[in-house]
Amino acid sequence: MNIINILENKIIKTLDDSKAQNIKTINTSGLTAIFDKIIISTATSTTHARSIAQKIFKIRKDFASIPSRNIEGISNAEWVIVDMNYIIVHIMQKDIRDFYDIENIWENNDVL
Predict the structure, then answer these.
(1) Which residues have a Cβ under 8 Å from the Cβ of 27 and sit 6 or more positions away?
(2) Where does the record place a coiled coil (predicted)?
(3) pLDDT of res. 52
(4) Is residue 107 part of a domain?
(5) Predicted local confidence at residue 51, as pLDDT
(6) Which residue of 9, 41, 72, 76 is surrounded by the most CB atoms within 10 Å?
(7) What are the tens digits of pLDDT across the range 65-76?
């Protein structure tokens, strides 16, 4: 198992343990050279989204060899993006997730 798969499993476990809903992983390695996977989940509130994002970002300490970048959107927490370099984690409120439907865009290769 390579480091990206180990990181993915750790992120999914953290999301699951944090009670994130509707967790979905999309392999983007054939679609973009920027990252290998997207993990999308739904949070039940802005407080929940912030808490999940902070837990995910702390995982980077276990993966010192993988440079992580940043957390975006944590201030309003309707859509938080945690950049773990090889994996981008989206933590979204249900209405935002339904509106943007990013998993459909990636799965149908509608990416520019």
Answers:
(1) 36, 37
(2) none
(3) 97
(4) no
(5) 97
(6) 41
(7) 777 678 999 999
Provide the domain count of the chain.
Answer: 1
Q: Is residue 111 one of the residues assigned to a domain?
A: no
Burial bucket for residue 7 (CB in 10 Å: 0-12, 13-18, 19+): buried
Q: Sign of torsion, CA 44 50 51 57?
A: positive
For residue 71, being part of any structural domain is answered with: yes
Q: Cβ of 75: how many Cβ atoms within 10 Å?
A: 10
CATH number at residue 93: 3.30.460.10
The Cα 27–Cα 25 span in angstroms is 7
- What pLDDT sits at residue 24? 96
108 lies in a domain?
no
Residue scoring higher pLDDT (68 or 40): 40
Characterize the bridge pairing of strands 79-83 and 87-93: antiparallel
| The residue to which tokens 């979905």 are assigned | 24
Three-state DSSP at 33 gives coil
